[in-house]
Amino acid sequence: AKQEGKDKILFYKKDIQTNNLNHVQMANKLQSAIENEEFMLFYQPQFKLNTGEIVGLEALIRWNHHEEGFISPVEFIPVAEDTGQIYSIERWIVKTALAQKKQWEKEGLGHVELSINLSGKTLTSDVNFQELEILLSTFDVDYSKITIEITETAIISNVDLVIRRLNRLKAKGLKIALDDFGTGYSSLTYLKKFPINIIKLDRSFIQLIPKNSIDTVIIKHILSLAHDLRYEVIAEGIETREQLEYLKKCFCENGQGYLLSKPLSQEKVNELMNSFRLK
Ligand code: C2E
Ligand code: CA
Ligand code: CA
Ligand code: CA
């Protein structure tokens, strides 16, 4: 048993070493991705569940590496956050998303809302938050139709600073969504301290729905509590009819997920929006 334990520790150490190596390699690759503009934004439609109409689009970054193909944001965002590369990546994201929003407004699609994911890093860095504000002031778009998505971990560090900054964003008209709700440890009543408009119910919750167990009861009550606290709710990761029907039954107003639509390229999303407009 002792021997086994030892091996495990060795294995673990080796794991850390490979991870560090991957980390450095990833950081280097990211540097050239930033310089060569290998990023793209995809947009996942968000739907009003009882009418099926598209109410918004969530911008999601895609990295098409010239040799390796698509690399997931789950892999590179954490590295970029560690190295600080997230700042330039996020400036590119915000710029690109706002330019796209402006384009949609010109095409008569100004009513469609746009969500942008923001790392907690940008929110808590003085210089980079200021740059974000400058960026926001250079685009003449309808900010009341823009939502910033942040995660719980991003807001529970530096509570006062984060509250101040979120309020500055809200003063420009933007809405704030709490992403991945349910994966952290804070209760909704605690989160009430933060100026949040929208709660995004994490996919891990939605996945529980098929089971007719205690979990579906929990979801129903989270939805009811969120509504009583005057939050708007978006359910994430809806993959089955069953999940959709249950959410509708619990008065969940909005949702996104593969059942409704995968994230789409800019061209595909334009096609989709045009077909909606013609109707
Ligand atoms: P997220 O913000 O929670 O985004 C939702 C993720 O779930 C997206 O993955 C989306 O493609 C995926 N998804 C949507 N519907 C379904 C479904 O029905 N089933 C399943 N299994 N997945 C679904 P993606 O694009 O790979 O992004 C993963 C995470 O990477 C995001 O989670 C977000 O935390 C981060 N990320 C993506 N784009 C950005 C960005 O532009 N900025 C920042 N800061 N983070 C980003
Ligand atoms: Ca998100
Ligand atoms: Ca999420
Ligand atoms: Ca997530």
UniProtKB/TrEMBL annotation:
It comes from the Bacteria. Residues 23-277 form the EAL domain. This is Cyclic di-GMP phosphodiesterase Gmr. The gene is gmr_5. The chain holds residues 402 to 680 of 685 of the full protein.
